[in-house]
């Protein structure tokens, strides 16, 4: 019970301190809007919204979650407030999951923006809701734990942003978001299979337009493996670097 209270307190503190701040809420709204408008402005012909929607949702989650968690933990570590948190009588795994939960919720919120826009612009009533919810949650979790991995691998906030972009920008082009995997050059196509966003976007394609490449259960399994692997690797790094 005490651990649940600690978990709730950490989550609420982070939501109040970071995620519910007006600049972050506007970031969560403006970023998906900017990506959506880009597709409308650059195309002379009508935009196939169901075709681009999985990519827009994936990118909105990826950039929102990795930015927030990588920066907030690096900032708290720099301010030495994170050391005080590590002294709390709570299991380290639960503590870090509590710190990550705010970013996961923020990622789900980011996913809602392009989905609500799509509802106004086109008919997506045939969407499979359960796979969509599963994909949004799994992309939010894996992207958040990628942000955690980045946060515990650097010392400065600017390093966190730079290291985040090292992963994020290649994912835009390699994960089949807007360029089908089959159209990627043969030399770089294998890289797509090592990026978790490839599988999350593929589940969304299955849910929205049935244009998936992989078996949906295989994609879910791979995303779960990525999530557990990134979280455990980050915990190991924290024990080695931050806890003497």
Describe the structure.
This protein is mainly alpha-helical and 244 residues long. The protein is 77% helix and 0% strand. The radius of gyration is 18 Å and the shape is globular. The two termini are 28 Å apart. The mean pLDDT is 84.
Query: In angstroms, what is the radius of gyration?
Result: 18 Å
Percent helix, as a range, is: over 70%
The pLDDT mean sits at 84
What characterizes the major β-sheet?
none
Strand content: under 5%
For the termini, the CA-CA separation is 28 Å
- The tally of beta strands, per DSSP, is 0
Number of distinct helices: 10
Structural category = mainly alpha
Order of helices and strands: HHHHHHHHHH
Shape: globular
Regions with little confidence, pLDDT below 50 for 5+ residues: none
How are the secondary structure elements laid out?
Elements: H1 2-19, H2 22-42, H3 49-78, H4 81-86, H5 92-121, H6 129-151, H7 157-174, H8 189-192, H9 196-208, H10 216-241
Tag the structure with descriptive keywords.
244 residues; mainly alpha; 77% helix; globular
Describe, in short, the structure shown.
The protein has 10 helices and no strands.
